[in-house]
Amino acid sequence: MPTGRLIAILAASLAACAAAPPKSALEEEILKWREQREARLKADGGWLTVAGLFWLKEGENSFGSDPACDVKLPEGAAPARAGVLEFHAGRTTVRMAPGVAATVGGAAVTTMELKADSAGSPDVLTMGPLQMHVIQRGERYAIRMKDMNSRFRKEFTGLRWYPVDESYRITARFEPYDPPRMLRIPTVLGTTEQMPCPGAAVFMLEGKEVRVEPVIETPGDEELFLIFSDGTSGKETYPSGRFLYAPMPRDGKIVLDFNKAYNPPCAFTPYATCPLPPEQNRVAPRVEAGELTYGHH
Question: Which of 26, 78, 126, 153 is the most buried (most CB within 10 A)?
């Protein structure tokens, strides 16, 4: 390349860098958080690897790549008949077929009762590129299957976001409930879950007062969990709404940074069991911040 042309390219690059305004501390924080969010999705065991959901019936549930199995595993990733899941009264015991290798927590397993996610961290059964664990949703139990070679992971095109906007980092008034109220949270399964709500966040948006009710997702959590939809839902953002975590309120205030609002797992896999916004968290104003829509689920 001629020296003069190289100098011109370097000069143009330096000019572009000089013209770009420096990022604020908040923008740097949000961009780093977004990178970590995408990395978690793409990681081994992330939501992009969730490739199956199988409801357990009382008694024996066969699993393997044979289409006749109750829990159908991907062809080529598991033996035709890998074993049996014995389900009875909310308890699930795995029995591996002779000669089929599997581990839980790195230890080889032939027969073992599998702890469900309702009891904390579930026992994860690993077979090559596959992972399985038991989930409980209401009175029903299922096997969630993850495939490290899932097509959702292979075909992932990356997340898209609104530009960071400091005006959407909102300090809201927090109105506590004493005692906390139990909210009925609908799910994509057509069921409802009960979650404790310690109070309401109240703030102004587009000249209107907005009132939303975050919940405590798991006892002992140090953050509140907000499931909401807004005027962008089904247009620029995911139709069913978005999620947001917020620090616990202090001195009657709570910080809601909608730059960190993100899509539920159902945006990335049809095998998730996502909660949906309760009616009081379906707000009319547009929240033009956070993650944009993805996929067709």
Answer: 78
